[in-house]
């Protein structure tokens, strides 16, 4: 009873723009991520400008992947979540023909993973899209993006159909509400009308691509990916409970459309009351209704609170929330709430009755090397241990959980703030915020700990 299901997928999750570097190699086009050298937190940014930054090289996974995959294997991974950079395949997004060099690169990665018996789990779009689509089409504001995304998805499904059987459409699709440039290629000051219109196009694309995946690779599974931003009511005052319901609906809306195939009533009401009019083509709703993801995946780092009193809100890293007096915070101010993961798993399973996959969870922290040259990251071990124990509790509650890929099994560039010093890895990478460092890899204390957890299928967790 102390172990996870026998076919459980264990591994880690990375994203192309945060690990690969090689931002202009092999005819890769510039992506929206390449235009954000300081991360997605640029409040009220109205124009992006490219300057060189830490992501241009990142951790050079582009060249060092054999060594990294070897280290993942040593930890016992049977799964690696990674993303394809759309700009390696279609540098400008609207070409008729794909870039063969980009396709060949991911062939090498998938072959290397296969040689180590690690199953690739691929996100089609992880916080990046061709920047040319922003310049020439206004990003997802344009319906044309649906066709471009479909073409890109079709290309990679056809190319890798014998190599990749697990797919995700858009990373944290609900984040467009908070980071529209990163999510849908709109400027950060875009209004809700524009953002929801772009999201509608993305949801139609999601449905088309889910169906396409089922056609091209009948034995594959394709899921959605949500930022699991569960909110508790700040008090038992019914007004706070309703505030929490509204906060949660903001992100559940995406899962509802991707799973149930229709716009929920609460969203139609919101659009009506906010005077938001979504332009649709005749068969958009038919397309949306025709597709349902095979499983729900999500990231989980923190829970939030919601209050009917707007004064309670604090400005946070990306998402504003009401502080929870019962919880501690990470060095970046993210609330640490392992039990929230059990609550979220039960909640999502109950709502959707589909298998779930935790595709991101981990602790960003500043690591120190001691005089013996070791990194004793007990705080990371504690964080992951406690979250995995709660994930296991949810399995005992009856939740169907496919797997766990911890975020950043190897140090990488953080997404929100583009820092190397916000480290998540079991593997240390010698690279620093100023761009210095040898890029050498080193095992941290948590490396052996995670290896043990995987090897015992969770039995070694401290309960
Ligand atoms: C999620 C993203 C990841 C990742 C993670 C940690 O939102 O899907 O790409 O980076 O958060 O966030 P950060 O890197 O800002 O610490």
Automatic annotation (TrEMBL):
- What does the record give under GO molecular function? beta-glucosidase activity
Tell me the organism's taxonomic lineage: Bacteria, Pseudomonadati, Pseudomonadota, Gammaproteobacteria, Vibrionales
| Family to which this protein belongs | Belongs to the glycosyl hydrolase 1 family.
Q: Which UniProt keywords apply?
A: Glycosidase, Hydrolase
- Gene Ontology terms describing biological process: carbohydrate catabolic process
Query: What is the protein name for this chain?
Result: Family 1 glycosylhydrolase
Gene3D superfamilies, from UniProt?
Glycosidases
> What PROSITE patterns does its record include?
GLYCOSYL_HYDROL_F1_1, GLYCOSYL_HYDROL_F1_2
Q: Name one GO cellular component term.
A: cytosol
A Pfam short name: Glyco_hydro_1
Organism (species): Vibrio gelatinilyticus
Q: Matching InterPro entries, A to Z?
A: GH, GH_1_N_CS, Glyco_hydro_1, Glyco_hydro_1_AS
What residues form the catalytic site here? 360 (nucleophile)
